[in-house]
Amino acid sequence: MVTIPIIDLTAFTNGDTITRRNIIKQIYQTCHEIGFMYLQNPGISKDLIRQVFAHSKSFFNLPLEVKQKQAWSDEFNNTGYVGLERERLDPNKPGDLKEAFNVNKQAAITIDASILAFYDNCTELANTVLQAYALALELPEDFFIIRHNQQNHTLRSLHYPPLQTPPKPGQVRAGEHSDYGSITLLFQDDVGGLEVQTASGNWIAAPAIPDTVVVNTGDLMQRWTNDMFCSTKHRVMIPSNNKVKQSRYSIAFFCHPNDDTEIACLESCQKEQPPIYPPILAGEYLLSRLQATYGNS
């Protein structure tokens, strides 16, 4: 039975040489085998996380016409409100039963002090994870950090409303997909529904574990590492119990390299097989993925 490992981040940030080496090895194995992990002691205050969830709930509680005034307009900006069923993460299925609100660093500055603080905290946490990834891949420890220093990250609040009517055939809360960037940090409530696909094709639950952050690898990291690190498919299903009558909230921090970073196969990832993917600029890849996600809805 595959389980998503729980990794104590303080063992990496504060551990001695042997402890750090063991954690780096564990992170490598996790990224290689499943692409998802829970990070314990992520270094973001619970109070700040609570504030951001409260801010998110108050926004989604607004009337639709108010939310639509801040509607997502295009994939170049990729900020604003995304309404129910607007997004189709699995192109073969109906639109997702969720609404979302995207902010970048500039938008975070204008919205609320807690949102900006959270964005900065997530950036710092992501940099620590990227440092561990670099060491796991035999790279200089700042290799990924300097290629993410323009902070092109997207902070996304998500709301999966209670179901009032039966879903369309095949419709779920978030369709099967992989994330587009390098890594994602995910904060979720305890309603549940997130599922992760294992290498054998089975789906396993990834419930909320108190005081942890879910971290998963995205497509660009998979390309960079020549499939050594896997960008795992995941989805959010509709609960089969009474929780179907509850809202589910989550917050994702999509960590993306600088737009002009060339994502080309790393030397340390060519030992087992020649490069699989042609080089691509990070910004071009993100645009192509966003166009595919929104283009047909």
Automatic annotation (TrEMBL):
Annotated keywords: Iron, Metal-binding, Oxidoreductase
Transmembrane domains' residue ranges: none
Pathway this chain belongs to: Antibiotic biosynthesis
Alphabetical list of Pfam families matching this protein: 2OG-FeII_Oxy (PF03171), DIOX_N (PF14226)
Domain of life of the organism encoding this protein: Bacteria
Fe2OG dioxygenase domain mapped to chain residues: 151-257
Record keyword Metal-binding present: yes
Family the UniProt entry places it in: Belongs to the iron/ascorbate-dependent oxidoreductase family.
Protein's recorded name: Isopenicillin N synthase family oxygenase
Species name: Nostoc favosum CHAB5714
